[in-house]
Each structure stands twice: as structure tokens, then as C-alpha cells.
Amino acid sequence: MPGNGYQPALTGSWVGPRAVLRLRLPSPPKSEGERTRALAAYYASMPTPFGQGVPTLSPENGGGVGDGSGAGGGGMGHWEDALVLGATVARALALSWSDEQFHDQFKGRGALLALQNWLGYTLPWNMELVTEYVSPRVAHWDPAQQQWMHRDPKGKEWSPGVSPNHLTLWVPNAPDAKYPQAVALAAYNQTGDAYPLTCP
Prior knowledge:
8 strands, 18% strand, three-stranded antiparallel sheet
């Protein structure tokens, strides 16, 4: 897409659209008494917006002592940032279930502003955050089984768990032939850990 590529004359590096993290949030259970259990189950399933997989570095896998620090500096390189966002989303979900004003501000593309104004949270990554409350026909809390259930992509079978979130990444265009590709690739890799899949 236009403007999504290597532009060293203008910026010294790469430019392009921001990645988009779309959070698919469940609607609250009908019973007030079930909301605490449902929220705890949601947070257990989604301690980060990307699920439960939080890698921990150790001497065996080439990292330092298991500090869970991920692969670099701040931003996308630190899994702690994903954990903080997961905890913040759980707080925001609980608040949105009880406060209509926050719920309205937290919906859609206003999510980041709502998190900043209401919870004092600032996203460390250079990406958009969009929220979508899924219908109970797509995901719901099952009090009998004490777990969240969601439909498969075809909308037929129910499975345990919450609806997955979506991360949209923009693949950069190939650099112009006048620029060495190795230099352009190294510049992309060093864009900064505020961007997905790049290094600090």
C-alpha cells in the first residue's frame, strides 16, 4: 500500500500504518452473582490479550535467569507489557459491566482514550486498540459449567473458552531497487520494540 515502506530520505527508516489489536470482549452474565466468577475465568483464560502463552527466558533456552523479560527493551519486546495490558483489560471489562458511561467510551476506537482517562493506562506499543463486545450468541458464560463458551468460526459448535482477539499487522512493501535490501531489512528490524515483530 502507498506510504508503507522504506523511506530513508524522509524518515531515515520505515513508515506505514499502525498495527491494530482488536479485543473481542464478552457481554456480562445476566446474574450479578455470576459476574465475579465469570471475570476471574476470563482473566485466567486471557492473562494477556494474546492468551496464556507467556514465555520465560532461562539458561536452558538461551536467556537469563527465568525473569520472563522477553526479547528486548520495553514495548513489544517485554512480555510484562502484555501482562499489564491483560490485567488492565480485565479491570476495564469489570468496570464496563457496571458503569454504562465507561462502557460507552470503551467501545470501538475510543478504547485507548478510555483506558488512559479512567484507569491511567498508556499503551507502550505503537498500535491501535479497538474493542468489540461480542453477542451472547457468539460467546457467553455458562453457569452450569462455570466457564466461558464460544462458537467456532462457522457458528455451529460451542467450545470452552473466550473468543480470540485479533492482531492485524501490515507487511511492508519491498524497498525500491535503489536501496540495498539488506540495509532496508536491518532498518526495519531496528525500528523499535514499540512495533510488532521488530527489535529494540
